[in-house]
Write a structure and sequence with these properties.
Layout (H helix, E strand, L loop, with lengths): L1 H33 L4 H5 L8 H21 L10 H31 L6 H4 E5 L5 E5 L6 H4 L1 H23 L7
Antiparallel strand pairs: 1-2
Helix pairs in contact: 3-4, 4-7
């Protein structure tokens, strides 16, 4: 009887170790193939080429949106518990509002700020080179770039400034994104 108990204990121990290892192998290596984690954030990265500059903004803003919608609104944490939690909650709400409402409005305003496009015949003049080859030359409309695109430049700088502020604060407050 004593030997049987020892054998059973060893088998239980072996089973616990191997089942744990199997579980870890499954959850870390097999399951992510079929059900990748953070799929929402993965969707923020387009399947086409994108400059890293825009990816930095898009992915980090998706972190904020995801946390706000999935965890902050879930009420898991008492955001009124401490002064720091209150400040973070206030910042998170304003950042979310900027990302989802104000920034798209600024981008729309930016798109509308570009001067109207001229048609091809107004923008280019046909010229003949010395060898008889015909080509086109852009006709200068006489308006300096900084004047013509003044509003576009202002809006681009404003968006960049606000994005940088949000991204900087995100890094400073990263410890609060854990619930």
């Amino acid at each position: 009887m004593f030997i049987l108990k020892k054998i059973i204990k060893k088998l239980e121990s072996f089973y616990r170790v191997t089942s744990y290892r199997f579980d870890m192998f499954y959850f870390e290596n097999v399951k992510p193939i079929f059900c990748p984690q953070h799929s929402r954030i993965r969707k923020a990265i387009p399947r086409t080429w994108s400059d890293i500059v825009s990816l930095i903004v898009n992915v980090n803003f998706e972190f904020i949106k995801s946390f706000y919608e999935d965890e902050y609104k879930g009420g898991i944490v008492d955001w009124e518990a401490t002064k720091d939690h209150k400040e973070f909650a206030k910042w998170l709400e304003s950042a979310y509002k900027y990302i989802t409402i104000k920034r798209p409005a600024l981008e729309k305003e930016l798109d509308e700020a570009y001067p109207p496009a001229r048609n091809f015949r107004e923008a280019f003049a046909e010229i003949t080179l010395e060898n008889g080859e015909k080509t086109y030359r852009l006709i200068d409309d006489g308006i300096p770039y900084k004047v013509k695109y003044k509003e576009v430049i202002r809006l681009e700088k404003l968006i960049q400034k606000k994005d940088t502020l949000i991204l900087t604060e995100l890094v400073k407050r990263r410890d609060y994104f854990w619930t």
